[in-house]
Amino acid sequence: MKVNKSWKWLWSLLVLPVMGVSLQACGPKHQEEPDCGFVQNVYGERVSWKSSVPVTLYVHEAFPEEMVPALKSAIAVWNKTAGRDLVRLAESYRVPGEPSPRQDGMSVVYWMSTWEKDKKAEQARTSVYWTSDEIREADIRINDADFDFYVDTPKSGKDVHLESIFVHELGHVLGLKHNDQATGSVMATYLSSQTLRIKISDLDRENIRCEY
Ligand SMILES: [Zn+2]
Questions:
Q1: How far is the C-alpha of 101 from the C-alpha of 22, rounded, in Å?
Q2: How far apart are the C-alpha atoms of 25 and 142, rounded to whole Å?
Q3: Between 3.40.50.720, 3.30.2350.10, 3.40.710.10, 3.40.390.10, what CATH number should domain 55-206 receive?
Q4: CA of 196 to the centre of ligand 1 (A)
Q5: Which of 4, 165, 171, 175 could bridge across to 157 with cysteines, CB 3.0–4.6 Å?
Q6: Which of 186, 194, 191, 151 is nearest to 170 (CA)?
Q7: What pTM does this model have?
Q8: What is the DSSP letter of 78?
Q9: Residue 170 C-alpha to ligand 1 middle, in angstroms?
Q10: Distance between Cα 26 and ligand 1 center (Å)
Q11: Could you give the 3-state DSSP secondary structure of residue 57?
């Protein structure tokens, strides 16, 4: 792990907006569950894709093709961890139009050339939409406005390892929340530049197997 100390922490303030919508007022289906590192709904139930895996992930057309291998590698990390496919990439299709992440029924990876000025410390963001305890959609934004990313070799000391970002964001896609207590979790909030974080910790593995 090579970290240029002269750089301050480049934070991945990877916000997981609480956009769950509980449309039924009919109460929980289960007893309150242990969270296993997952986001929980208001009834204390873990929120995940349940049996609707693998999740199909689409790529927006503004996403650089030379960066796609980083996404593929990160998907493979989670699929290998689970022992089955949790995420699949829709390889032959690119979502056209302006990059405008929104709830539209498709889970899309966006490469954003603009970013909110008051959130410049965010390297990426995943928005998860769910109903009851089941995720329906998750969109990933990569902040290309404020950061430079690399696949294999950094060009400068501040470059950020894109596969590491995707391993973390895909954890959010699958329903995991931040974990800053456990050493080595890929769900730790912060990632410094030129740092690799692509190895799933034992706890991350145990957690993901609670749901998948
Ligand atoms: Zn995050």
A1: 21
A2: 35
A3: 3.40.390.10
A4: 15
A5: 4
A6: 186
A7: 0.86
A8: H
A9: 9
A10: 31
A11: strand
CA 64 and chain centroid, separation: 18
Residues in a beta bridge with 127: 139
Distance 187 CA to ligand 1 centre (A): 6
d(CA 136, CA 111): 21
C-alpha of residue 121 to centroid of ligand 1, in Å:
12
- Cα of 180 vs centre of ligand 1, distance in Å, is 10
pLDDT, residue 93, reads: 97
Domain boundary assignment for the chain: 55-206
179 CA → ligand 1 middle, Å:
9
Distance from the CA of 160 to the center of ligand 1, in angstroms? 15
- The pLDDT value given to residue 13: 40
Instruction: Tell me how far the alpha carbon of residue 198 lies from the centroid of ligand 1, in angstroms.
Output: 14
Contacts of 144 (CB under 8 A, 6+ apart): 111, 112, 113
Q: How far apart are CA 198 and CA 152, in angstroms?
A: 13
Give 38's strand partners.
Answer: 176
